[in-house]
Protein backbone atom coordinates (compact mmCIF):
# COMPACT_ATOMS: atom_id res chain seq x y z
CA UNK A 1 0.00 0.00 0.00
CA UNK A 2 1.41 3.43 -0.89
CA UNK A 3 2.87 5.37 2.03
CA UNK A 4 3.53 2.36 4.25
CA UNK A 5 6.98 1.23 3.09
CA UNK A 6 8.49 1.97 6.53
CA UNK A 7 5.72 0.32 8.59
CA UNK A 8 7.03 -1.83 11.45
CA UNK A 9 3.68 -2.91 12.91
CA UNK A 10 0.01 -3.14 12.02
CA UNK A 11 -3.32 -3.56 13.79
CA UNK A 12 -6.90 -4.02 12.65
CA UNK A 13 -10.03 -2.52 14.11
CA UNK A 14 -13.63 -3.29 13.22
CA UNK A 15 -13.59 -1.62 9.79
CA UNK A 16 -10.30 0.26 9.94
CA UNK A 17 -6.58 -0.46 10.02
CA UNK A 18 -3.54 1.10 11.67
CA UNK A 19 0.15 1.05 10.75
CA UNK A 20 2.98 1.89 13.15
CA UNK A 21 5.74 3.62 11.24
CA UNK A 22 9.48 3.33 11.93
CA UNK A 23 9.58 6.98 13.02
CA UNK A 24 7.00 6.37 15.79
CA UNK A 25 4.06 7.94 13.99
CA UNK A 26 0.82 6.16 13.07
CA UNK A 27 -1.13 5.94 9.81
CA UNK A 28 -4.77 4.83 9.63
CA UNK A 29 -7.31 4.06 6.91
CA UNK A 30 -10.82 2.65 6.44
CA UNK A 31 -14.12 3.53 8.13
CA UNK A 32 -13.96 6.73 10.19
CA UNK A 33 -17.55 7.37 11.33
CA UNK A 34 -16.46 7.80 14.96
CA UNK A 35 -13.12 9.51 14.35
CA UNK A 36 -11.13 6.29 14.85
CA UNK A 37 -8.62 7.28 12.15
CA UNK A 38 -7.44 10.19 14.28
CA UNK A 39 -7.13 12.68 11.44
CA UNK A 40 -9.57 15.18 12.95
CA UNK A 41 -12.45 14.20 10.65
CA UNK A 42 -15.14 11.54 10.33
CA UNK A 43 -14.41 11.04 6.63
CA UNK A 44 -13.75 7.47 5.50
CA UNK A 45 -10.25 7.10 4.02
CA UNK A 46 -9.35 4.44 1.42
CA UNK A 47 -5.66 5.38 1.75
CA UNK A 48 -3.54 5.89 4.89
CA UNK A 49 -3.67 9.24 6.68
CA UNK A 50 -1.45 10.37 9.56
CA UNK A 51 -2.92 10.30 13.06
CA UNK A 52 -2.60 13.91 14.20
CA UNK A 53 -0.39 15.02 17.12
CA UNK A 54 0.92 11.53 17.85
CA UNK A 55 4.58 10.49 17.90
CA UNK A 56 6.84 8.20 19.89
CA UNK A 57 4.46 5.26 19.47
CA UNK A 58 5.74 1.72 20.05
CA UNK A 59 2.51 -0.30 19.69
CA UNK A 60 -0.94 0.15 18.14
CA UNK A 61 -4.25 -1.66 18.59
CA UNK A 62 -7.68 -1.35 17.06
CA UNK A 63 -11.08 -2.14 18.50
CA UNK A 64 -14.70 -1.69 17.48
CA UNK A 65 -14.52 1.80 15.97
CA UNK A 66 -11.71 2.96 18.24
CA UNK A 67 -7.93 3.03 18.17
CA UNK A 68 -5.22 2.85 20.81
CA UNK A 69 -1.52 3.68 20.81
CA UNK A 70 1.13 2.91 23.42
CA UNK A 71 3.86 5.55 23.49
CA UNK A 72 7.48 4.99 24.49
CA UNK A 73 6.91 6.98 27.70
CA UNK A 74 4.17 4.53 28.79
CA UNK A 75 1.24 6.82 27.93
CA UNK A 76 -1.75 5.24 26.22
CA UNK A 77 -3.69 7.39 23.74
CA UNK A 78 -7.21 6.46 22.68
CA UNK A 79 -9.60 7.90 20.10
CA UNK A 80 -12.83 6.96 18.34
CA UNK A 81 -16.08 5.43 19.62
CA UNK A 82 -16.85 6.07 23.28
CA UNK A 83 -20.43 4.80 23.73
CA UNK A 84 -19.48 2.54 26.66
CA UNK A 85 -16.59 4.62 27.98
CA UNK A 86 -14.05 2.81 25.83
CA UNK A 87 -11.69 5.76 25.73
CA UNK A 88 -11.15 5.67 29.48
CA UNK A 89 -11.43 9.40 30.04
CA UNK A 90 -14.88 9.64 31.62
CA UNK A 91 -16.10 11.76 28.68
CA UNK A 92 -16.19 11.57 24.91
CA UNK A 93 -12.88 13.41 24.58
CA UNK A 94 -9.65 11.51 23.85
CA UNK A 95 -6.86 11.83 26.40
CA UNK A 96 -3.64 10.06 27.33
CA UNK A 97 -3.25 7.56 30.20
CA UNK A 98 0.05 6.52 31.79
CA UNK A 99 1.23 4.00 34.35
CA UNK A 100 0.06 0.47 35.06
CA UNK A 101 -2.03 -1.76 32.85
CA UNK A 102 -5.45 -0.18 32.79
CA UNK A 103 -8.76 -1.26 31.28
CA UNK A 104 -12.07 0.45 30.62
CA UNK A 105 -15.24 0.17 28.56
CA UNK A 106 -17.80 -2.60 28.29
CA UNK A 107 -17.39 -5.30 30.94
CA UNK A 108 -20.46 -7.52 30.49
CA UNK A 109 -18.30 -10.65 30.39
CA UNK A 110 -15.69 -9.59 32.92
CA UNK A 111 -13.22 -8.72 30.17
CA UNK A 112 -11.75 -5.79 32.10
CA UNK A 113 -10.17 -8.08 34.69
CA UNK A 114 -11.45 -6.13 37.69
CA UNK A 115 -13.49 -9.01 39.13
CA UNK A 116 -16.85 -7.48 38.21
CA UNK A 117 -19.11 -6.98 35.22
CA UNK A 118 -19.96 -3.26 35.43
CA UNK A 119 -18.99 -1.06 32.49
CA UNK A 120 -16.23 1.45 33.30
CA UNK A 121 -16.10 4.92 31.78
CA UNK A 122 -12.74 5.69 33.35
CA UNK A 123 -9.56 3.64 33.38
CA UNK A 124 -9.13 1.10 36.18
CA UNK A 125 -5.81 -0.49 37.16
CA UNK A 126 -5.68 -4.26 36.66
CA UNK A 127 -4.09 -5.11 40.01
CA UNK A 128 -3.13 -8.69 39.08
CA UNK A 129 -0.93 -7.61 36.18
CA UNK A 130 2.65 -6.46 36.60
CA UNK A 131 5.72 -6.40 34.33
CA UNK A 132 3.61 -6.43 31.18
CA UNK A 133 5.39 -6.04 27.86
CA UNK A 134 2.51 -6.35 25.39
CA UNK A 135 -1.26 -5.90 25.50
CA UNK A 136 -3.96 -6.57 22.95
CA UNK A 137 -7.71 -6.31 22.84
CA UNK A 138 -10.60 -7.94 21.06
CA UNK A 139 -14.35 -7.52 21.14
CA UNK A 140 -14.82 -9.20 24.53
CA UNK A 141 -11.33 -9.67 25.92
CA UNK A 142 -8.02 -8.14 26.82
CA UNK A 143 -4.76 -10.08 26.56
CA UNK A 144 -1.42 -9.32 28.17
CA UNK A 145 2.03 -10.90 28.01
CA UNK A 146 4.40 -10.47 30.96
CA UNK A 147 8.18 -10.20 30.89
CA UNK A 148 8.23 -13.81 32.16
CA UNK A 149 6.34 -14.89 29.04
CA UNK A 150 3.02 -15.55 30.80
CA UNK A 151 -0.17 -14.92 28.81
CA UNK A 152 -3.06 -13.37 30.75
CA UNK A 153 -6.57 -13.51 29.29
Entry summary:
With 153 residues, the protein is mostly beta strands. It is built from no helices and 13 strands.
User: What low-confidence regions span 5 or more consecutive residues with pLDDT below 50?
Assistant: none
Task: Say how many strands there are.
Answer: 13
In CATH, what is the homologous superfamily? Regulator of chromosome condensation 1/beta-lactamase-inhibitor protein II
Radius of gyration, in angstroms, nearest whole number: 15 Å
Shape: globular
- Helix vs. strand class: mainly beta
**Relative strand content:** 35-45%
Largest sheet, if any?
A: 4 strands, antiparallel
Helix content: under 10%
CATH fold call? Methylamine Dehydrogenase, Chain H
Mean of residue pLDDT? 80
* End-to-end C-alpha gap: 33 Å
Number of structurally distinct domains: 1
Q: H/E element string? A: EEEEEEEEEEEEE
- Give the count of helical stretches: 0
CATH architecture descriptor name:
7 Propeller
Please report the first level of CATH classification, the CATH class: Mainly Beta
Could you describe the 3D structure shown?
The chain has one domain: Methylamine Dehydrogenase, Chain H, CATH 2.130.10. It has a 4-stranded antiparallel sheet with strand order 1-2-3-4, with no helix packed on it. It is globular, with a radius of gyration of 15 Å. The chain has strands at residues 7-12, 16-21, 26-30, 45-50, 57-63, 66-71, 76-80, 96-97, 102-105, 120-125, 132-137, 142-146, 151-152. It is built from no helices and 13 strands. It has 153 residues and is mainly beta.
Amino acid sequence: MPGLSTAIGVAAGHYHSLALMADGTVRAWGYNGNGQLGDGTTTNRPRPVTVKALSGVVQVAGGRDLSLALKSDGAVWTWGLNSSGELGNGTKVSSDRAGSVMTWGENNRGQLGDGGSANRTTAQVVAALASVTTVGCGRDQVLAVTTAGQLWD
